[in-house]
Amino acid sequence: MPSDAARAPRTAGRRRSPTAPPRSFLWARRIVLTALAGFVLLPVYVMLSSSLKPLEDVSGAFRWLPSELTVRPYLDIWHTVPLARYFTNSLIVAGSATVCSVTVAVFAAYAVSRYQFRGKRVFTVTVLSTQMFPGILFLLPLFLIYVNIGNSTGVALYGSRGGLILTYLTFSLPFSIWMLTGYFASVPRELDEAAYVDGCGPLGALFRVVVPAALPGIIAVAVYAFMTAWGEVLFASVMTNDTTRTLSVGLQGYATQNDVYWNQVMAASLVVSVPVVAGFLLLQRYLVAGLTAGAVK
């Protein structure tokens, strides 16, 4: 029979660390995380299963398992409504708004974070205060401005992609400037001075030193601007026509006066979410770093 001294090492090896959390906490955490995962994944399962069902299965009472698996809804979504045209419009509008927003925000944020000028405080407060107002307040003024510009100059902003891009810049650009100002402020000024010593000017220091150092923050701002423009509904429903309609508004075409093609709605929703999900997965490491890049100076 082993002695107490022989059992002591094995008992000590099984002994829990004093800093380890109690088992009740570990089990509670597992239960909570499982419940949250189910809450998040349940709508995804409903969308996926409904997109693989015939219309009869989704028109009546909900069934957890489809009576028949079919990929027909994924083929019909391109013919029921001009989804390809809506997809192209959304890519052009969201991509152009993102590029313009990030480009202007980089120059503006660099100036605010590096230079002292008259009205700097008023400018930063004004940029930040624009985020206090709901977007619907700007809907009617922008509509009237676009219509009057079109009547007086012949430049068709209302119902055009360019007008929608300008509209999205009104609420994505202030946030981008405010966020990038914090990111650029976290980059040491000594790097700019070293670039000046090497013969760079202000623009050279910006693009060769500051932008690479703040790249995670720039990518985070670009992802925000793209996702905001990609899923926006209010302005897109008013500022577009049949030719320039985007996905967020075009998905309503699957609901007719006689019926709603729920299986095609679910299939189209999954298809249009692919660019956003793929972009998020590709830029995830930059996005996570960018969200905390300007938190501590």
From TrEMBL:
Its main location: membrane. Residues 1-21 are annotated as: Disordered. The keyword Nucleotidyltransferase does not apply. Residues 1-11 have a biased composition (Low complexity). It is a multi-pass membrane protein. The chain crosses the membrane at residues 31-48, 91-110, 122-145, 165-185, 205-227, 261-283. This is Carbohydrate ABC transporter permease. It comes from Streptomyces decoyicus. The lineage of its organism: Bacteria, Bacillati, Actinomycetota, Actinomycetes, Kitasatosporales.
